[in-house]
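Work Package 4 report. The design task specified in the project plan requires that, given a folded chain encoded as structure tokens, an amino acid be chosen for each position. We show below one input record used in the internal validation round.
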């Protein structure tokens, strides 16, 4: 089991050492610590970064020292990674930071539409059906741009919109095909993400139909539990192993 997507106290997860220990206790071969990071200098994103405390752009070297200090304590590979918020307007800043930081790999994610995190149902639910469909189209455009940018090894939770009831079911097969074609022409690999499979959402990203379209286009996948607490790693990993067994896919190794 190689889990390329867990968080630590360097963003919104629990202590780094406790996350790595949980991965070792679950007999993972490797775990990638991919903490949230935003480098956008737009006012709205700067306020969000300050409010959320996402400061990996300032603390990644300290975290790297901490990861190195764990090498002799646990019998697994620990990767120094990042989950980067992506917007096409920020590509130059993202590329400059990733080049400077030199992470083992980078995970890209689209979290914001209309200047608001896509999880916030209260913002999006009052909008008309036409407005919400237009925002779904915009999400797909941003995700395609993320994939085509070639800045990232992994694209996180590629149908994240499905977690929000205001958007659920609005992604179409045409959207899935458009995204699958982008992935098939890129080095960026989507993940099977188990971040809410045992919680309120109750499903994987991507959903079954989307995953089928990706596999039909020959797209490889990685695995990510998207865990923020030690107790989440093992049960989510079991669910990931179950689903890859059911669909008969061999996840690719990033490193």
């Amino acid at each position: 089991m190689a889990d390329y997507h867990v968080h630590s106290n360097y963003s919104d997860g629990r202590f780094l050492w406790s996350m790595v220990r949980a991965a070792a206790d679950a007999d993972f071969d490797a775990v990638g610590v991919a903490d949230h990071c935003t480098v956008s200098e737009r006012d709205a994103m700067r306020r969000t970064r300050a409010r959320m405390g996402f400061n990996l752009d300032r603390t990644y070297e300290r975290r790297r020292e901490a990861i190195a200090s764990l090498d002799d304590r646990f019998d697994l590979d620990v990767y120094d990674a990042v989950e980067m918020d992506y917007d096409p307007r920020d590509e130059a800043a993202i590329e400059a930071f990733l080049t400077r930081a030199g992470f083992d790999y980078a995970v890209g994610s689209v979290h914001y539409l209309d200047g608001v995190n896509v999880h916030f149902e209260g913002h999006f639910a009052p909008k008309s059906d036409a407005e919400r469909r237009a925002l779904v189209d915009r999400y797909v455009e941003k995700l395609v741009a993320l994939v085509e940018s070639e800045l990232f090894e992994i694209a996180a939770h590629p149908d994240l919109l499905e977690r929000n009831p205001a958007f659920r079911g609005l992604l179409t097969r045409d959207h899935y095909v458009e995204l699958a074609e982008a992935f098939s022409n890129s080095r960026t690999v989507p993940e099977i993400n188990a971040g809410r499979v045992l919680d309120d959402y109750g499903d994987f990203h991507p959903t079954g139909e989307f995953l089928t379209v990706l596999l039909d286009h020959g797209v490889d996948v990685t695995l990510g539990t998207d865990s923020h607490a030690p107790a989440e790693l093992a049960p989510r990993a079991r669910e990931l192993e179950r689903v890859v067994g059911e669909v008969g896919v061999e996840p690719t190794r990033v490193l």
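The mean pLDDT is 96. Validation will be extended to a larger panel in the next phase.
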